[in-house]
Design goal:
The chain has about 120 residues and is of the alpha+beta class. It contains six helices and three strands, in the order αααβααββα. The protein has a three-stranded antiparallel sheet. The longest helix is centred in the C-terminal third of the chain and has 15 residues. The two termini are about 20 Å apart. The mean pLDDT is about 95.
């Protein structure tokens, strides 16, 4: 059952405070794209794997059961959203999470699900 106010009444001070603290619309769109990356099961599995270890595309292909081509496509999405970074080592390309904040986001999300 959904609960709603019985009387329409705006609380102007609260609205003013919230609007003052909301990010710009461009930032909200970026944030939406960021979280959208977590909404795909394959990308999420990649991120959870990279939370544990820096891995190459072949490793990620094995872990996910998908082709290297399919993994490359998902990694491109994650790179475009500044969620993963990479380094070359000879003929191999190793991927890692962009920074420690992403590990924390994944950790907190998993803890939330465990409650």
């Amino acid at each position: 059952m959904s609960y709603i106010c019985e009387v329409y009444k705006e609380h102007r001070e609260k609205i003013k405070k919230v609007n003052k603290n909301l990010p710009e619309n461009d930032t909200i769109k970026e944030l939406s794209n960021f979280f959208d990356a977590f909404g795909d099961p394959t990308r999420l599995k990649i991120l959870l794997a990279l939370k544990e270890e820096e891995l190459c595309t072949c490793d990620l292909s094995n872990i996910t059961g998908l082709s290297v081509s399919a993994i490359s496509h998902q990694l491109r999405v994650l790179k475009d959203r500044k969620i993963v970074n990479y380094r070359r080592d000879g003929k191999n390309v190793f991927y890692r999470l962009e920074d420690e904040h992403l590990k924390e986001i994944l950790k907190v999300a998993l803890e939330h699900l465990g409650e």
